[in-house]
Design brief:
This protein is an alpha+beta fold. The chain has helices at residues 2-9, 14-23, 31-43, 67-91, and strands at residues 12-13, 47-54, 57-65.
Length: 97
Amino acid sequence: MCLLAVISEEPTYGYEMARKLQDRGLNLVSEGSIYPLLSRLQKQGLVDGYLVESPGGPARKYYRLATLGRQALESWTADWRALTVGVDGVLTGGTDG
């Protein structure tokens, strides 16, 4: 879900995704762990990958959100929000504080 959220902002390549996630406080993510996930997301039709030439280096594979990916992100985000409300309710004993 987090990868799809980052990709939804703009087409992005693996290293850049890892950096963005880390910058936002998700420090458990490494560049090496992202590529297998991206491969699965692409096989599921949630993202599209394409190569972009990089000056002074090898081409980079960028990913953009596919229509199915946008729909999945919206659904997963709604599920996540509902889950966090439920967990907060349990942790606070059903009180507001």
